[in-house]
Design a protein that fits this description.
It is built from 13 helices and 20 strands. It has helices at about 15-25, 75-85, 95, 110-120, 135-140, 155-175, 185-195, 205-215, 245-250, 285-295, 310-320, 360-365, 390-405, and strands at about 5-10, 30, 40-45, 50, 65-70, 75, 95-100, 105, 200, 220, 260-265, 270, 305-310, 310, 325-330, 340-350, 350-355, 370-375, 410-415, 420-425. It has a ten-stranded mixed beta sheet with strand order 9-7-5-2-10-1-11-15-19-20, sandwiched between helices. Strand 19 and strand 20 form a beta hairpin. Helix 4 (about 110-120) crosses helix 5 and helix 6 (about 155-175) packs across helix 7.
Length: about 425
């Protein structure tokens, strides 16, 4: 098998966890390259729903090594709590989990800073998860961050924590607030965590290089999505990391030549959590119907997702930025009862038509969607497993999306379960989706 990257093609929550879980048997390694425990990848195992925030979705498969790359920010408490939850299913997490020595460590004061920052913005809040991800990446960029490799020496922990404390308290004085944190306990906890995790710490770039030279295949797993990418998303309503294809290179230490293919994951409609532009948003009963049928509530926060029609401008932009070889279309079944299904094919800004996403978010917020209406199929698809058994109108809808985005659709998902998937065996990239 080639080395394949899985990238979200909208604003996140596209179902990447299910797709990674589905195709992991064809790979020896699953490597996560960005974000922190602000991500939420939902995987169904039997009658149980498991929401993974840090651990790659491949962890449910025996013998598959799961890697957390240097591009992540890792909250020790969150990681260990998540590991216990997975272990409750009878899975030996630590036997297969590898953590980069260069990944940054998320600390309690990062959460405090995140909440303070959002409080101060008032009505201009970005809608972060409040878990400290942004402030941790800020410390990384400012070169005052604490890394996993620092946890292996107590003297280094004390020195780093002292410098971090000084900066934090200076910020608090500037804000005119007081935040009492137990810094001694923080240092003690970090030392203990470092001792526990030390056997699983590796130079991830070197490890992946050796494994790929030996012929092992790697599945690169992204968190969040292209429109939340720090550089290519709807700034400032974005996450703090590189969620697109560039994040594979920087977040794992893998050269571009080692990425053999890229699959974009998109929903058959569009959703977004938090604030920011969403041109096709439906603020009516139709949108509420999509939310309820699709279970559109944040896997990490539980917040209701804003819902709208499929936006081909967004998907086409993501395909261009990331070089998608194909797109996996998820939650097709949510559209089953609809008589008519609009697709956004462009935007109208004042008197001008736009066929791409404007950089200026204030312009983007004023864009109106230009729709092309497709006939719905008004029949259940949840039990369909063969491409030929999809309703003709559903196949027309899929083909129109493929034409508008400019890449093939090798798979559609018609339910949350692993087997609720329909592969187009005629698609060039379908071989990537079969173990």
């Amino acid at each position: 098998m080639p080395n394949i990257a899985i990238i979200g093609g909208q604003w996140g929550d596209e179902g990447k966890g299910k797709i990674v879980d589905l195709i992991t048997p064809a790979f020896e390694i699953v490597a996560r390259f960005n974000g922190g425990h602000n991500a939420g990848h939902t995987v169904i195992r039997g009658d149980r729903k498991l929401v993974l925030h840090l651990i790659p979705s491949g962890i449910l498969h025996e013998g598959v090594r799961c890697v957390l790359g240097p591009g992540l920010v890792i909250d020790p408490q969150a990681l260990e709590a998540e590991a216990r939850e997975v272990e409750a299913l009878g899975i030996d997490v630590w036997a297969n989990l590898i953590v980069s020595d260069r990944a940054h460590v998320l600390l309690p004061h990062h959460r405090a800073l995140d909440l303070m920052s959002e409080e101060r913005k008032g009505s201009g809040k970005l809608g972060t998860t409040g878990r400290g991800i942004g402030p941790c990446y800020e410390d990384k960029a400012a070169r005052r961050g604490l890394r996993i490799c620092d946890l292996l020496l107590r003297d280094r922990i004390d020195a780093k924590v002292a410098a971090i404390r000084e900066h934090f308290e200076a910020l608090c004085r500037g804000y005119g607030v007081t935040r009492d944190l137990d810094w001694k306990k923080t240092a003690d906890d970090l030392e203990a965590f470092g001792a526990r995790i030390a056997p699983r710490v590796r130079d991830v770039s070197a490890l992946l290089h050796r494994e790929m030279v030996e012929g092992y295949s790697v599945l690169f797993e992204g968190a969040q999505a292209t429109l939340l990418d720090l550089d290519h998303g709807t700034y400032p309503f974005v996450t703090s990391s590189s969620a697109g294809i560039g994040g594979v290179v920087t977040g794992l230490g893998v050269p571009p030549s080692r990425i053999d293919g890229v699959l974009g994951i998109v929903k058959a409609y569009t959703t977004r959590v938090g604030t920011g532009p969403l041109p096709t948003e439906l603020k009516d009963a139709v949108g509420e119907g999509l939310r309820e049928r699709g279970g559109e509530y944040g896997a990490t926060t539980g917040r209701p997702r804003r819902c709208g029609w499929f936006d081909a401008v967004v998907a086409r932009y993501s395909a261009r930025v990331n070089g998608f070889d194909g797109i996996v279309l998820t939650k097709l079944d949510v559209l089953d009862p609809l008589e008519e299904i609009p697709i956004c094919v462009g935007y109208r800004y004042r008197s001008t038509r736009l066929d791409d996403i404007p950089a200026d978010v204030t312009i983007y917020e004023d864009c109106a969607p230009i729709y092309e209406n497709m006939k719905g199929w008004n029949t259940p698809t949840g039990d369909v497993r063969e491409w030929k058994d999809l309703p003709p109108q559903a196949r027309d809808y899929i083909k129109r999306i493929a034409d508008l985005v400019g890449v093939e659709v090798p798979l559609v998902s018609v339910g949350p379960d692993r087997d609720a998937s329909v592969i187009d065996l005629n698609a060039r990239t379908s071989s990537w989706l079969r173990a």
